[in-house]
């Protein structure tokens, strides 16, 4: 009788301990899953959260067709190149592989670090540079080739900024959305892959000025 009573008292305690252990494991698993989700969110969020400054400029990766269309517009071009809002660096890296000294400006530090890693992985890190910067606070005056992946809200102001800063020999390549006032000199692609190229020498009449100056310099 005493043994039976002792066993009867022990069994609930063992079951209670097991239940407690199961509860502890459940808490640990829940905490682990929760921590993993938080970590994933911390990593993924910077890649998709818009950089909020004057306009909302979300990160949308360039398609393979867009990259090829940009490279087509860069044929027979040389000199320095900049990608405004360079994202994960794929345009800058593609241009570097074609021989350009290519630079990317991107506000999102996660994307800049990832771009640097991709450039190193693809063996073009010596021909590329990536800067964490707000495009409105950067002067693009010394670039001959400018690539823009913008949104409609930013294009009018960016058009004015580039008009004021760039030299006559510059070419601006717009992807997805054209500039509102400039007339493109070249267009290629269809739909979201459309690319527009603008040569400032045409819009500013630089060729006319050069023709007027040339006879005097040669005589």
UniProtKB/TrEMBL annotation:
GO MF assignments: protein-lysine N-methyltransferase activity
GO cellular component: mitochondrial membrane
Membrane topology note: Single-pass membrane protein
Principal localisation: mitochondrion
Biological process terms in GO annotation: methylation; positive regulation of sensory perception of pain; regulation of mitochondrial ATP synthesis coupled proton transport
Membrane-spanning intervals of the chain: 25-44
Keywords, in A-Z order: Membrane, Methyltransferase, Mitochondrion, S-adenosyl-L-methionine, Transferase, Transmembrane, Transmembrane helix
Cell location: Mitochondrion membrane
Record family assignment: Belongs to the ANT/ATPSC lysine N-methyltransferase family.
The protein, known as: ATP synthase subunit C lysine N-methyltransferase
Organism: Tychaedon coryphoeus
Gene designation per UniProt: Fam173b
């Amino acid at each position: 009788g005493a043994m039976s009573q002792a066993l009867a008292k022990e069994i609930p305690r063992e079951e209670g301990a097991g239940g407690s252990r199961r509860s502890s494991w459940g808490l640990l698993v829940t905490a682990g899953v929760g921590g993993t989700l938080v970590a994933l969110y911390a990593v993924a969020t910077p890649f998709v959260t818009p950089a909020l400054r004057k306009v909302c400029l979300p990160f949308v990766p360039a398609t393979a067709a867009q990259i090829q269309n940009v490279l087509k517009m860069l044929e027979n071009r040389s000199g320095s190149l900049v990608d405004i809002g360079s994202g994960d660096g794929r345009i800058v890296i593609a241009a570097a592989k074609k021989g350009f000294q290519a630079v990317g400006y991107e506000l999102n530090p996660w994307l800049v670090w990832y771009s640097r890693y991709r450039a190193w992985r693809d063996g073009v890190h010596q021909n590329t540079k990536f800067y964490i910067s707000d495009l409105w606070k950067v002067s693009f005056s010394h670039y001959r080739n400018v690539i823009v992946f913008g949104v409609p809200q930013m294009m009018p102001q960016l058009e004015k900024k580039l008009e004021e800063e760039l030299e006559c020999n510059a070419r601006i390549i717009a992807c997805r959305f054209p500039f509102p006032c400039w007339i493109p000199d070249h267009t290629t692609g269809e739909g979201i892959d459309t690319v527009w190229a603008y040569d400032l020498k045409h819009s500013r009449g630089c060729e006319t000025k050069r023709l007027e100056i040339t006879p005097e310099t040669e005589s």
